């Protein structure tokens, strides 16, 4: 079964610190992974998409990486801010040639002042 | 700015009531989706539509139905609400059916069934 698994489930860090969120996938065939940020009580918003040919992509203080060999993606947040407190969701294709998406369960990140 | 609007942010209903959740998008997107989101389970697809009057079952359609009479509007219907349908409901739309297509989500409707 195609899956997207995220770790850790939750994370608490101090403001200003860096952190890395992980996403392991078993989707086949693989084409892309997208990271969404979901603020509490709001809908998810796309941060970035990683396609098969990309290793690293930055969006401000967010940097996503993709390792196709180990089937891992990570989202690195630099110099965290209170506004980074949110859930981060990794999403991949359903796989097997089917339409649709496979959602990770998310990492709940809390930034403490 | 891209916008997906869900009619109600919070609803409280009683078991057995009929519930309508409305979603409108202003981006002329072909594709619209209804998800529910529960702690520890992530987002699960209920129904989706790739065109007006078209609907397809997602992974958990039981107890739900949908209506898409106009391109911009996609409604989720709970014919007889039950307590296990207490959840956050998220509507989304996009223009690209491929998995690379970005989903644009509404703010969500938190439904409590008593």
Number of strands of chain A: 11
Rg of chain B:
13 Å
Radius of gyration of chain A: 14 Å
How far from one another are the termini of chain B?
Answer: 37 Å
The major β-sheet of chain A equals:
6 strands, mixed
Summarize model confidence as the mean pLDDT of chain A.
92
SS-based structural class of chain B?
mainly beta
| Low-pLDDT residue spans of chain B | none
What's the number of helices of chain A?
Answer: 0
Number of helices of chain B: 0
Gap between N and C termini of chain A, in Å?
A: 41 Å
Our estimate of the beta-strand percent of chain B is over 45%
Percent range of helical residues of chain A: under 10%
Write the H/E string of chain A, N to C: EEEEEEEEEEE
Overview of this structure, please?
The complex is a heterodimer of chains A (113) and B (114). With 113 residues, chain A is mainly beta. Chain A contains no helices and eleven strands. In chain A, strands 2, 4, 5, 9, 10 and 11 form a six-stranded mixed sheet that branches. In chain A, strand 4 and strand 5 form a beta hairpin. Chain B has no helices and eleven strands. In chain B, the strands form two sheets. In chain B, strands 2, 4, 5, 6, 9, 10 and 11 form a seven-stranded mixed sheet that branches. The interface between A and B is medium-sized, with 23 and 20 residues.
What is this structure's SSE topology?
The complex is a heterodimer of chains A (about 110) and B (about 110).
Chain A: E1 4-7, E2 10-14, E3 19-25, E4 32-38, E5 45-51, E6 56-59, E7 62-67, E8 72-77, E9 86-93, E10 101-103, E11 107-112
Chain B: E1 4-6, E2 10-13, E3 19-25, E4 31-38, E5 42-49, E6 56-57, E7 65-70, E8 73-78, E9 87-94, E10 104-105, E11 109-113
Parallel strand pairs in B: 2-11
Antiparallel strand pairs in B: 1-3, 3-8, 4-5, 4-9, 5-6, 7-8, 9-10, 9-11
């Amino acid at each position: 079964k195609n899956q997207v698994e995220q770790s850790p489930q939750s994370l608490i860090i101090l403001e200003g610190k860096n952190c890395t969120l992980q996403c392991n996938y078993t989707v086949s065939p693989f084409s892309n992974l997208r990271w969404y940020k979901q603020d509490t009580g709001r809908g998810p918003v796309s941060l970035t998409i990683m396609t098969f040919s990309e290793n690293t992509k930055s969006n401000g203080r967010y940097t996503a990486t993709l390792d196709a060999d180990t089937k891992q993606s990570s989202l690195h947040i630099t110099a965290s801010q209170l506004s980074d407190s949110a859930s981060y969701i990794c999403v991949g294709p359903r796989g097997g040639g089917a339409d649709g998406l496979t959602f990770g369960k998310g990492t709940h990140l809390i930034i403490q002042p | 700015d891209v916008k997906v609007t869900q009619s109600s942010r919070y609803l409280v209903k009683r078991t057995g009531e009929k519930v309508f959740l409305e979603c409108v998008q202003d981006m002329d997107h072909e594709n619209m989706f209804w998800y529910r989101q529960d702690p520890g389970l992530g987002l699960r697809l209920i129904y989706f539509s790739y065109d007006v009057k078209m609907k397809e079952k997602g992974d958990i359609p039981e107890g739900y139905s949908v209506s898409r009479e106009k391109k911009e509007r996609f409604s989720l219907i709970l014919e007889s609400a039950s307590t296990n349908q207490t959840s956050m409901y998220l509507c989304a739309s996009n223009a690209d059916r491929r998995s690379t297509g970005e989903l644009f989500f509404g703010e969500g409707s938190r439904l409590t069934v008593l």
